[in-house]
Specification:
Elements lengths: L3 E4 L2 E5 L5 E2 L21 E3 L17 E2 L23 E4 L3 E8 L9 H11 L1 E2 L23 E23 L4 E7 L2 E2 L2 E2 L13 E5 L3 E6 L4 E11 L7 E10 L13 H16 L15 E2 L3 H11 L4 H12 L10 E2 L10 H17 L2 H19 L30 H20 L3 H22 E2 L2 E2 L10 H10 L7 H13 L18 H10 L3 H17 L26 H8 L6
Parallel strand pairs: 4-13
Antiparallel strand pairs: 1-2, 3-5, 6-16, 7-8, 7-9, 9-14, 9-15, 9-16, 10-13, 10-15, 11-12, 17-18, 19-20
Helix pairs in contact: 2-12, 3-5, 3-13, 4-5, 5-6, 5-7, 7-8, 7-9, 9-10, 9-11, 12-13
């Protein structure tokens, strides 16, 4: 830990040799991770907690801290002042959706999340015993030693980055409280994540109560739409609990409210803005419930959403810096910033980082920061140049993913999507270099782009169609869109490509269609819309959004999903990377009466 506190310009507290340290024994060792992306589950024994956060606490018995590295030494070779503003905190109104009581579910066993699933899924409905001040009484006080469990389910209305916490009175010290988070219903029933599948999500924190009154609050920020509190006994007959949820929100300043005359389109704008707000924390967050991770590529549509609403570029500047600071030794940028999940290094997110850099330059003209990041750009693009094979195309790097898209497109190599996205990055970088008077870089990248464009046409374009691989197994909307955006498609080929792209999205059957292009996921529609804009097809952009995003509005969804169907395990119903329709509607409104 390296920290300093300054008040009114004076340094009043620093981390130095006078600091003292002690492990907080109320936190259990070896707690499982929340997900493959997130931090650990919290498992606390409140009998081991003390008042170290209170004024006047005596820490004389604590050990002296150890200096493991000096300031200026690794890993703190450089430090920058935090630019992101502090998050605003506020208490949310809770809507009680249901109470269930389950017998014989022991909450202090090893797997608290499994116990919660069992209690909720097998429990019977119970009355919500509460007084006028909001204090609840468990349904089964004095239960058996194995543990009766009462579970309260609250609905926040949409996803929030938040923390559930509880006030407790008159505990005996034999009770256990779980606090957990969920995001969606299926057929009217709450979906509690199964850690055996997909992201291995287990968003359940556990507190073993001590005798008396106490407040139970997790250390880590969580997220979701639904918050569950589960109390297991045996419980004191006079036990009472009062539940809270505290939201943590980015202080978004809306400089340009997006207002459209068409009520159905405005409802989509509102849907997208709610999603964006839900997933904006210290930076651009993918899913506040499942991951709370800042994916570098996903930041591109989110930065465009923010640009449509606000002049605030701090999150954009932050993700640019974090990605550059987290680069691998070979120059490849991380897929997740600031903490990389190595198995999820998505290499085409490097290409999207180039687009982010160009967007930042276009919005700010901040030459100083762009030049600070220039060495990372040069090293990264040179790294990919080393992947070029004899046919002029690049292949993937071992252990790294080509790209992320839920669509069933071919990942065989050489791959059109991967190469065309690299082509777009080279062209974007060359244009940026020319504007910054970096002539040698501009020429080098443009030469590479010219050669790659021809290699892509030779390999993937046949029969008026852009194929995703050499065996011609799939032809996708995304490959066609990237071919238009890069000029790999000739101008006279654009109309047919754009017609095919629009027709597939306007067909609301999400299943694969024989003879049609492979439907792109909501996130990837950003590139489809950019291609349609480039071809003057604003009407098609608006109609696709009206039909596809309008389905979520019509079903009462408060936020945009990560895919057209999220019935798969842990599929999320709140992903800001799908909310870019707000930006594209705003862009279309510049030329159309919306």
């Amino acid at each position: 830990m390296l920290a300093a506190l300054c008040v009114d310009g004076a340094s009043c507290l620093v981390t130095d040799a006078t600091w003292r340290v002690r492990r907080d024994r109320s936190f259990a060792d070896g707690a499982p991770r929340v997900s493959i992306y997130g931090s650990g589950v919290e498992d606390r024994d409140m009998a081991n907690a003390d008042a170290w956060t209170e004024p006047g606490y005596d820490a004389a018995a604590w050990e002296s801290s150890r200096i493991v590295a000096p300031v200026g030494g690794a890993p703190w070779t450089s430090l920058a002042a935090r630019e992101a503003p502090p998050l605003d905190e506020r208490e949310l109104e809770l809507s009680l959706r249901g109470v269930r009581h389950a017998a014989g579910v022991a909450l202090r066993r090893s797997d608290s999340h499994a116990a919660l699933r069992q209690a909720w899924q097998t429990g019977r409905p119970a009355a919500a015993a509460t007084d006028a001040d909001g204090w609840f009484r468990p349904a089964g006080v004095g239960g058996n030693v194995g543990g009766d469990t009462t579970v309260w389910l609250f609905d926040l209305g949409r996803d929030y980055a938040c923390q559930g916490w509880a006030e407790v009175m008159n505990a005996s010290g034999t009770e256990t409280l779980l606090i957990s988070y969920a995001e969606k219903l299926r057929n009217g029933e709450l979906v509690l994540s199964d850690p055996a599948t997909y992201c291995r999500v287990r968003l359940t924190d556990r507190f073993a109560l001590r005798a008396g009154s106490q407040a139970l609050e997790s250390f880590s920020l969580r997220g979701g739409r639904y918050v569950l509190f589960a109390l297991g006994g045996p419980a004191h007959p006079d036990l009472r609990l009062r539940f809270h949820v505290r939201a943590s929100e980015y202080p978004l300043r809306v400089d340009r409210p997006v207002r459209l005359d068409a009520p159905d389109l405005q409802a989509i704008v509102d849907l997208c803005e709610r999603t964006f707000r839900a997933c904006l924390q210290d930076g651009f967050v993918d899913s506040t419930w499942r991951e709370s991770s800042q994916w570098v590529g996903d930041a591109l549509p989110q930065a465009l959403i923010m640009h449509a609403l606000s002049d605030d570029v701090r999150p954009l500047r932050q993700v640019l810096r974090m990605a550059a600071d987290g680069a691998y030794p070979d120059g490849v940028l991380p897929g997740v910033a600031p903490g990389e999940a190595h198995a999820y290094t998505v290499v085409d997110y490097n290409f999207m980082w180039v687009e982010l850099l160009a967007l930042y330059w276009r919005l700010t003209g901040d030459r100083e920061l762009v030049l600070q990041l220039w060495p990372a750009l040069v090293k990264m693009l040179d790294r990919f140049a080393g992947d070029v094979a004899g046919d002029g195309l690049i292949r993937s790097q071992p252990g790294r993913r080509l790209f992320l898209d839920w669509a069933p497109v071919s990942r065989q190599e050489p791959n059109a999507i991967y190469n065309l996205h690299y082509l777009l990055a080279l062209q974007t970088a060359a244009t940026l270099a020319a504007e910054l008077d970096a002539g040698e870089d501009a020429a080098r990248w443009q030469d590479r782009a010219t050669a790659l464009r021809q290699a892509c046409r030779t390999a993937f374009f046949a029969g008026d169609r852009w194929w995703d691989d050499l065996p011609r197994t799939t032809a996708s909307q995304l490959a066609a869109a990237l071919a238009v955006l890069t000029g790999a498609s000739e101008a006279d080929e654009w109309p047919k490509q754009l017609d095919a792209i629009a027709a597939r999205s306007l067909d609301l059957d999400d299943n694969p269609q024989p003879g049609a292009l492979v439907l792109a996921s909501p996130f990837i529609h950003h590139y489809l819309f950019e291609a349609l804009h480039a071809g003057g097809r604003e009407l098609a952009v608006v109609e696709i959004i009206r039909r596809r995003w309008g389905r979520w509005v019509q079903t009462g969804a408060p936020t945009t999903w990560e895919n057209w169907n999220v019935d798969f395990p842990d599929g999320s119903t709140c992903h800001a990377f799908s909310a870019h329709a707000l930006y594209h509607l705003d862009k279309a409104a510049k030329t159309l009466p919306l």
